[in-house]
Automatic annotation (TrEMBL):
SUPFAM superfamilies: CinA-like, Molybdenum cofactor biosynthesis proteins. Residues 4-174 form the MoaB/Mog domain. Belongs to the CinA family. PANTHER family: NICOTINAMIDE-NUCLEOTIDE AMIDOHYDROLASE PNCC, NMN AMIDOHYDROLASE-LIKE PROTEIN YFAY. It comes from the Bacteria. SMART domains: MoCF_biosynth. This is Putative competence-damage inducible protein.
Length: 423
């Protein structure tokens, strides 16, 4: 199968939007063993797009497009595909009903549905309509004389979800093989460092293939096998994952899930599940993260069984009065220190009679730093079953990034301490 990718949108040509969709699709198709000979970007012009179709089909069996499925007159991708295959467009009643329901859900007002949204419900009768579970614009597969045009929405979140949920299975079935993937999520190691550790695997890979993706604050590794049977796929995948775990398993916090799901949500769920299963009560005292750690923990359903309290002790007075941090500790070492982090963790745990106490204290900036204690310096304290630890980290980025990275680091440290307590 040979595929060409066409990205539709004048905003892409002008450089107003970075074209991440083409990069994503190229990687996905390569892992399936599908040839991508060319990528094209074209503006919102129906005749130019049809000429792109004509040119692409000289080399490809399938064209995949992204963009141009919106409700306005410059969204012309479906119209161009239908015109190219000489297929007439009609309103699909089922699609129009779904679009109206989504518009009402988004706005809360039935009378606010723009009538031009009806354009998103128009398809040829010959087309296969692809549902969009994350937006109002359905995708579609146009086909004639053995040639296919697959149209998908432009917003990356919608496009990726549609590709994984609907297009990927079609492409896999068309390959004649069983193609399966498993995902490994890494925390505490960057993409470059992980690549060095796995370089022998990456350089010698054939089947399965191994691909690294840098995500927000973590690295995702996808292992993909292509075999005649699912049993063969499972065997190859499990062997390769065992090999990776043997090299750098200490950084893996999850095997499973997919690339679309939020990495933050995945780590929340892993830690929340571990806490509930361990039945260890936890309380959190936060300064620089301002409640983010607690907020992440309570994302997990059922966490109320073990989560006792989240306390934001931002001032020194709150640290002393609420968490029993010694005034002498603050004067000698400062609020941002190993000693204060430990006392915060002990204080919240003992005050709440919790098995685990977690604390964060740091300098999120943009001001307030010094040579000794720069912006981005964070201490995370963990008290667990009578033992107390503190960890020093320095995070780059602005105030928001520093707080988010400190939060994720705290969650991962909870995970590691829970693993340690099991052994």
């Amino acid at each position: 199968m040979n595929v060409e990718i066409i990205s539709v949108g004048t905003e892409l040509l002008l450089g107003d939007i970075l074209n991440t969709n083409a990069q994503y699709l190229s990687k996905e198709l390569a892992l399936l063993g599908i040839n991508v000979f060319s990528q094209m970007t074209v503006g919102d012009n129906i005749e130019r797009l049809k000429r792109c179709f004509e040119f692409a089909f000289k080399r490809a069996d399938v064209i995949i497009t992204t963009g141009g499925l919106g409700p306005t007159t410059d969204d012309i991708t479906k119209e161009a595909a239908a015109s190219y295959f000489e297929q007439e467009m009609f309103i699909d009643d089922e699609s129009w009903e779904k679009i109206q329901n989504k518009c009402i859900k988004f706005s809360g007002n039935k009378g606010s549905i723009p009538q031009n949204n009806i354009r998103q419900a128009m398809f040829p009768k010959e087309a296969i309509i692809i549902p969009n579970n994350n937006g109002t614009a359905p995708g579609a597969i146009f086909e004639k004389n053995g040639k296919k045009i697959i149209v998908m929405p432009g917003p990356p979140r919608e496009m990726k979800a549609m590709f994984v949920e609907s297009i990927l299975p079609i492409l896999k079935n068309g390959s004649g093989y069983i193609i399966d993937s498993k995902y490994l999520r890494f925390f505490g190691i960057g993409e470059s460092a992980l690549e060095i550790k796995l370089i022998n695997i990456l350089d010698s890979q054939t089947n399965p293939t191994v691909a690294l993706y840098a995500k927000e604050g973590e690295v995702l590794v996808r292992v993909t096998a292509m075999c005649n049977t699912q049993i063969e796929c499972d065997k190859l995948l499990n062997e390769k994952i065992a090999e990776i775990k043997n090299i750098c398993g200490e950084y893996i916090y999850l095997i499973g899930g997919d690339e679309i799901s939020s990495s933050q949500t995945e780590l929340d769920n892993v830690v929340g599940k571990m806490l509930v299963e361990s039945n260890l009560k936890i309380a959190v005292a936060e300064s620089c993260t301002g409640g983010l750690v607690s907020s992440c923990l309570i994302n997990y359903p059922g966490i109320s069984k073990v989560f006792l309290e989240g306390c934001i002790a931002y001032s020194n007075e709150a640290k002393v009065d609420r968490l029993s941090v010694k005034l002498s500790t603050l004067k000698k070492y400062g609020a941002v220190s190993h000693e204060t982090a430990k006392e915060m963790a002990i204080g919240i745990a003992k005050n709440m009679n919790a098995n685990i106490g977690v604390s964060t204290t740091g300098i999120a900036g943009p001001g307030g730093g010094s040579n000794q204690k720069p912006v981005g310096l964070v201490y995370i304290g963990i008290y667990i079953n009578g033992n107390v630890y503190s960890f020093e980290k320095v995070f780059p980025g602005d105030r928001r990034k520093i707080r988010e990275r400190a939060t994720r680091e705290a969650l991962n440290l909870i995970r590691l301490q829970l693993l340690k307590s099991r052994s």
